[in-house]
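Tutorial handout. Part one gives the primary structure; part two gives the three-dimensional structure as tokens.
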Amino acid sequence: MDRLTSMKVFAAVVRLGSFAAAAEDLDMSSAMCSKYIRDLETSLDARLLNRTTRQQSLTEVGSTYHKKVIGILSEIEEAEQCVSELQNEPVGTLRLMSAPSFGSFHLARAIKGYKKQYPKVAIELFLSDDHEHMVELGMDLSFRVREMEDSSVVAFKISSSRLIVCASPEYLQENGTPKTPHDLKNHICMSMLDNLVFSPHWIFNIDGNETIINTDSNYLKANMADSLRVAAINGSGLIQLPSYMIGLDIQAGRLKPVLEKYEPKPLPINLIYAHRKHMSLKIRSFVDYMQAYFETPPYWDKWMYEIK
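Part two.
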């Protein structure tokens, strides 16, 4: 069988996690998808995937081979992009990774305008926090809300997000408004679980110094910020979340900010590009569009000028 197609099928199975999903993505039958993988393993005389009735996982040999395959397919795609760029028109498939909240709240909106301007670029959006494996998963770009220290990648800043403490007007009316971060010990504070940036230890700027306040009230913890946002809107307690998640709720009056003068410095929102020799026109056009779309100040922070 065609070796290049077999590589594409193998990469799709790893990226999507199943033969059925890969077959649908590549517009072929599951049986044909399995045949490509079997023939590839036969030609290599090595097992690439451990198969169970529910999922597939890479063998040690498969993991090494997968990294090489991703590189080969990337080089082929870049070669094709070079040809299309001679016609000055972005084409091809753009694979994006984003944290679920940012992707759902904002990126899905922005893609509409980009697609209208560049209709020949197909978009695949993966909502995940597994940014460390973006290359292995075949991603072209990844949105990250944090400071970047990894010099092996290229980071394009597209916007920023404030860290806001807020609650519903009903909660504040019933429980009072905290005046300083130390008042939080008398309030219900709902926090993130197992997250390096947002955790029960909330960040504040006190007298010019970044200060951590323990806000663990044991009322509600969650590994997804959207659940905390909904709980806060319904009057359950206080939250500290990035403004891109709750800025529009504040603007609509569903949430009310508190402790604004103690806010820490804003978090940068970056588009991460796994550093390669050539940046295709589709990637360059997407980065440029996103930088223009998420203007300064971003639309989720415009409430701060309207309510003062």
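Part three, for discussion. The domain at 1-72 is CATH 1.10.10.10 (Arc Repressor Mutant, subunit A). The CA atoms of residues 177 and 258 lie 7 Å apart.
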